[in-house]
Design a protein that fits this description.
2 helices; elongated
Length: about 80
């Protein structure tokens, strides 16, 4: 069974988690609360871990769907 596509899905999921953490936890939420933006502390550090954990399932799902679609397309072409 081919598992190389999972690395791309994991990387994509982690990148999305970091992106949403940066936009949401470091920028939008502090700006709405009237505190300093882009400031790392204990709360934002634990929030990063949560964003990474919750970014993995969508990334893995995307990798699985992309792999299945490429196999389906390869089966039709050949």
């Amino acid at each position: 069974m081919e598992r190389h596509g999972d690395r791309g899905g994991v990387a994509l999921g982690l990148a999305c988690g970091v992106m949403w953490w940066t936009v949401g936890a470091l920028w939008i939420m502090p700006a709405n609360m009237g505190t300093r933006v882009f400031e790392c502390n204990d709360v934002t550090s634990s929030s990063l871990g949560t964003h990474l954990v919750f970014g993995l399932p969508p990334g893995l799902a995307f990798g699985s769907v992309a792999r299945a679609m490429s196999k389906q397309g390869a089966g039709r072409a050949g």
